[in-house]
Write a structure and sequence with these properties.
- This protein has about 350 residues and is an alpha+beta fold.
- It folds into four domains: about 70 residues, conserved putative lor/sdh protein from methanococcus maripaludis s2 fold (Beta Barrel), CATH 2.40.420.20; about 100 residues, Elongation Factor Tu (Ef-tu), domain 3, CATH 2.40.30.170; about 70 residues, Beta Barrel (OB fold (Dihydrolipoamide Acetyltransferase, E2P)), CATH 2.40.50; about 80 residues, Helix Hairpins (Orthogonal Bundle).
- Helices cover about 25% and strands about 40% of the residues.
- It contains four helices and 22 strands.
- A hairpin with a 2-residue loop joins strand 17 and strand 18.
- The radius of gyration is 42 Å and the shape is rod-shaped.
Length: about 350
């Protein structure tokens, strides 16, 4: 009885081994896998690396010299066009002060002389001792001397006080645009060099409209030939995980430049959707520029496609476990997946061989 049981067990084990040995391949033999053809979306895109910047950023400078008397705004404050930013107190050199004072004294002397001559000629004109033409010429000279005196007085008052006698023309610099104060470049008491035709002048503040942010970045020369202005873009902000912005490719530089032995092109993207979170100038960002996009198409991993000249083919396994090549027509690729335009159907299985070991 025991012999019969032992013989029966041996027969069963041998049968199982034989079944496994001669069973048709299911795709896992020798590390081979079967990958199913599925429907998915493919996006061909180019990557640009850069940061967010204001479209317009203005450095505020002074047209007069002196020292910073009062700062009326702080960094991050929103300002309107014409709003006071900085008051500059005059700080003339001894030579400038002396020149202004002497100019005022000469203007006073000239005015007093012109006034006496005008009064005398006015009386002569009333007695018909001079012509009307001579009287009008003398009247014009008197008016000019009076204006020169007023100008000299205002210049001297500005050098002394920073304002004229009527309180106007104070040396207060106002904002040229509506925007946000991004940077304060001076403190109260700092000297100010004026902006002139021969010198740049001291930068005081930096102001920009923060609702006009753009993306400035670079793209590799390999991708730039595929790009056209007007392409849609998806932007990801490094400091704001999960926040995505939308934009449109606005400018592509016509000239390349070198960066660490790499040829790159500068570009600008106009942001059309600023998202829901506060954006700051200088945020690092990546932009995916959409070159082409197809939805709900047949795709497989591109690594499974063999390219030989004009022929593209894949390996498939029939119902008997035999592996053979089949020609296919491919379409759009994103570098990982590729479109199958013809040759396969949804649910078909493509052979994926194991990677070759490096000897």
């Amino acid at each position: 009885m025991k012999k019969i049981i032992i013989i029966s067990v041996i027969v069963i084990v041998v049968g199982v081994i034989g079944f496994l040995a001669f069973k048709p391949s299911n795709g896992n033999e020798n590390g081979i896998k079967l990958v199913e053809v599925i429907k998915d979306n493919i996006v061909d895109k180019a990557l640009a690396v850069g940061q967010l910047e204001p479209r317009r950023e203005i450095q505020v400078k002074s047209k007069i010299s002196g020292i910073v008397k009062t700062l009326h705004v702080e960094v991050g404050q929103d300002v309107k066009a014409g709003e006071a930013l900085i008051t500059v107190a005059p700080n003339p050199t001894p030579l400038e002060y002396a020149e202004a004072k002497r100019y005022l004294e000469l203007a006073q002397i000239d005015f007093e002389s012109a006034k006496k001559i005008f009064k005398r000629n006015e009386g002569m004109y009333e007695k018909n001792l001079i012509s009307r033409e001579d009287y009008e010429i003398n009247q014009a000279e008197y008016s000019e001397s009076k204006l020169r005196l007023q100008l000299a007085e205002e210049k001297f008052e500005l050098l002394q006080k920073g304002a004229t006698g009527n309180g106007k023309n104070e040396n207060t610099i106002v904002s040229p645009i509506k925007g946000t104060v991004l940077e304060k470049l001076v403190n109260e008491g700092d000297p100010v060099v004026p902006l002139t035709s021969y010198q740049a002048g001291t930068p005081l503040l930096s102001i920009a409209p923060m609702d006009e942010l753009i993306f400035k970045g670079t793209v590799d020369e390999i991708d730039v030939g595929k790009l056209e202005e007007g392409m849609t873009c998806d932007l990801k902000i490094g400091a704001l995980p999960g926040e995505k912005l939308e934009g449109v490719l606005d400018k592509i530089s016509p000239k390349a430049r070198k960066q660490e032995n790499t040829t790159i092109f500068d570009l600008e993207i106009q942001i059309t959707d600023l998202g829901s979170k506060t954006l700051r100038a200088g945020f690092s960002a990546n932009a995916d520029i959409i070159i082409n996009k197809k939805d709900s198409i047949l795709v497989i991993p591109e690594r499974l496609v063999t390219f030989a000249g004009d022929t593209t083919r894949v390996e498939i396994q029939d119902s008997l476990g035999n592996i053979e090549f089949k020609d296919v027509e491919v379409g759009l690729s994103d570098g990982l997946n590729i479109e199958i335009a013809d040759g396969l159907m949804l649910g078909d299985k493509v052979v994926e061989r194991p990677p070759k070991e490096i000897e």
